[in-house]
Task: structure prediction
Amino acid sequence: MKIENIKTFGELKKSGYTTKGIKEELRQNLLSNIKSGKSSFEGIHGYEHTVIPELERAILSKHNINFLGLRGQAKTRLARLMVNLLDEWIPIVEGSEINDDPFHPISRYAKELINEKGDNTPISWIAREDRFFEKLATPDVTVADLIGDVDPIKAANLKLSYADDRVIHFGMIPRANRSIFVINELPDLQARIQVALFNILQEGDIQIRGFKLRLPLDMQFVFTANPEDYTNRGSIVTPLKDRIGSQILTHYPHTIEVAKTITQQEAKLDERQLNLVHVPDLAKDLLEQISFEARDNEFIDARSGISARLSISAFENLLSAAERRALITGEEKTLLRFSDFLGVIPAITGKVELVYEGEQEGSAIVAQELISDAVKTLFPKYFPKIEKLEKVDEDNPYNDLVEWFFAESEFELLDDLSEKDYKERLDSIPPLNQLIDKYQSGISKEDSYFLKEFVLWGLVEYKKLNKYRFTKGIQFKDLYGSYISGL
Result:
């Protein structure tokens, strides 16, 4: 007989079922996963040696948990994945508002029903996925929302006085008894509302409109918060902090490889885009490097954080830019181009919070600067570093390429060139082809075209070439030839 088919308290006792608290559930199931080598937090990357061990220690310690970190650091995702550590089913007294355990009832309703019916008390079952509750802390949240209030309509219908505890309407927290309850952005919760959580976290009783009910709620609380120095909207009151067992600091990915894995996992892409657009690994690296640059940029407020959603949205925009061009030119397949990166600017401007100087520059200018900085950072990983000061007679691997631009005066790459014309334009620069063959000989033909553009953009960033954006594309020129020819 399947355990969830048990319908009465008597059948439950005969089955040998033993009840346990939610923190013990989490602990036992985590212990089982650790012993078997099974990951409890699939899909979380970059936290294997930092956040996840701390979270596992907190669960083993049966602590309530506060995730403290900047936006886009998977705080809520971690809390939701804790649901997988719950038992598949738990029994409750049928009809109970607060998921009463039949072995340890705490509500008046459940106690009276068990006293009346004994082993015939009806039992229902709750699945693990229904034992997760989440509340975003906003200034309009009230004690009544979270804890409960007296319900005058219930009092009138049941013909009860306000002195009777049956007139109480329970709030979200009591209704989430024996569940995981998450409060996101805890500092945004007004201080007086935070105070209302004290007794629930420590003493196990609740107070509603003069009623002091001894309700030892069985809860796993998880809170999320941004660092207090980031927001002026509020803070976590000290006594509440004291009642939270473990505070776990989250962080952004430390490497581009981890960041790429997160972006590829989270980006919502159409299958047709993936089949249509070829994306070189260099382009993926460049995209992630933009976020890394943003976290160190002087025009961006680092305290607000640069969410992983920046890279995710930018990657979606990047493929859409290439897809749009392919639709215009009628191509069935297309290579991602460097010009497509101009399409990610809207994804960047909406995800960064600028300081005063950044506002003066303008968000679009700052976004373009981030792309330029990313190019400059990655360039030495693929080609010889360009020094600011060079000896006059020193052999420079870029001299032939710069001289070619001096002789040709200008070179244009239009945004909507067909694949054939695009490749022909880049192949028409012999020194560029030679540079790729010498320093990146193992690269595939498909990826080589993006790399060629990358070289041109890199030379611009290192002041070897000039770049001009016009309505339909980009023009590359040598630094001085245009002035000389105009004399």
Q: What stands out?
A: The two ends are 95 Å apart (CA to CA). The chain has a mean pLDDT of 88.
